[in-house]
Amino acid sequence: MAFVILAPCETEKAGECATVCPVDCIVEGTDQFYIDPDVCIDCGACKAVCPVDAIEEEYDLTPEQEVYLEKAEAFFANE
Ligand code: SF4
C-alpha cells in the first residue's frame, strides 16, 4: 500500500511532503510531486503537512483518482 498525490498538487506543488518523508520517496515532476509506491512505508507524514489536502491512501482513492496512482507508477518506471 502507498499514499498517492492527487490533482490539487498540480497547481500548488508546495513541496512540504518531500521535506518530511522519512524514506525520501517523494520526487518533484514537471506537473506535480509523485510518491514512489514501491518505497512508501505508509507513515502518513506527507498527508499531515500538505497545505492543499492533495494526498490520500491508495485504498481510499475514488475510481476517478486511480489515474494518479497510475501516473506515479509510470513516473518511477521511467526514472
Ligand atoms: Fe513518505 Fe510516509 Fe508519505 Fe509514504 S506516507 S510518501 S513514506 S511521508
Give a structural overview.
This protein has a single domain, classed as Alpha-Beta Plaits (2-Layer Sandwich). The chain has four helices and four strands, in the order βααββαβα. It has a two-stranded antiparallel ribbon. A two-stranded antiparallel ribbon has the order 2-3. Bound molecules: iron/sulfur cluster.
Tell me the domain tally. 1
Spans where pLDDT lies below 50 across 5 or more residues: none
Mean pLDDT: 96
- The N- to C-terminal Cα distance equals 20 Å
Secondary structure category: alpha+beta
Radius of gyration: 11 Å
Which ligands accompany this protein? iron/sulfur cluster
What is CATH's topology name? Alpha-Beta Plaits
Function: Ferredoxins are iron-sulfur proteins that transfer electrons in a wide variety of metabolic reactions.
Keywords: 4Fe-4S, Electron transport, Iron, Iron-sulfur, Metal-binding, Transport
Organism: Gracilibacillus marinus
Pfam family, one: Fer4
Which key terms come to mind for this protein?
single chain, 79 residues, alpha+beta, Alpha-Beta Plaits, two-stranded antiparallel ribbon, binds iron/sulfur cluster, electron transport, 4Fe4S_Fe_S_CS
